[in-house]
């Protein structure tokens, strides 16, 4: 095993134990929580090392980088999650390689995603990204909780897409537990409309314990496994 692979193995083990402990404390079964390792900014070689270590779910947030990595790793049995901001003119391109698009925050994205699903002759899994920021906050991503029901309906009507649930990022400067509690309410509303939409993707390196406490089914962990990214992202 290379030094890098050994380092990844050690960090991955720490993260898996953090998830197990958080589940234990929340009285949840660890099988209910899926770890998505966020490999953005890191090379194909790291994705390969992670796959060797049993990682099956990877997350990326930039289309061009992810498209290239996906192509380079075509021999690996991985589920690719897109978790980044999406332009409507790029949604078909993302849908061409992603297995799951977690960051659907407006109906304008759906046409391209549906087209991609049609071209691949498969169903594309999507989550609705919910904003947990105060209205008008700078740089916020995600649909306002009040706009989620209409967006959920639009996803349900869209050809080739399967609504899996909700995704969110905790805002900076707020206790993540409070933010994830709001997400849990939105998730429950979505499930009341579509009982199969059970995913709650929440929690990152710094707040995965809070997310698990509030019902996350997917945590998206980057730096705690791969180390610090070269720049913000
Ligand atoms: C980068 C990113 C993550 C992972 O963040 P870490 O703090 O490195 O774990 C999770 N979710 C989204 C949407 C991201 O862009």
From TrEMBL:
SUPFAM superfamilies, alphabetized: PLP-binding barrel
UniProt xrefs under InterPro entries: Ala_racemase_N, PLP-binding_barrel, PyrdxlP_homeostasis
Start and end residues of each Alanine racemase N-terminal domain: 48-230
Gene3D superfamilies (alphabetical): Alanine racemase (3.20.20.10)
Pfam families xref list: Ala_racemase_N
Modification type N6-(pyridoxal phosphate)lysine: residues: 40
Keywords: Pyridoxal phosphate
Keyword Transmembrane: no
Family the UniProt entry places it in: Belongs to the pyridoxal phosphate-binding protein YggS/PROSC family.
PANTHER family from the UniProt entry: PROLINE SYNTHETASE CO-TRANSCRIBED BACTERIAL HOMOLOG PROTEIN (PTHR10146), PYRIDOXAL PHOSPHATE HOMEOSTASIS PROTEIN (PTHR10146:SF14)
Function of the protein: Pyridoxal 5'-phosphate (PLP)-binding protein, which is involved in PLP homeostasis.
Record protein name field: Pyridoxal phosphate homeostasis protein
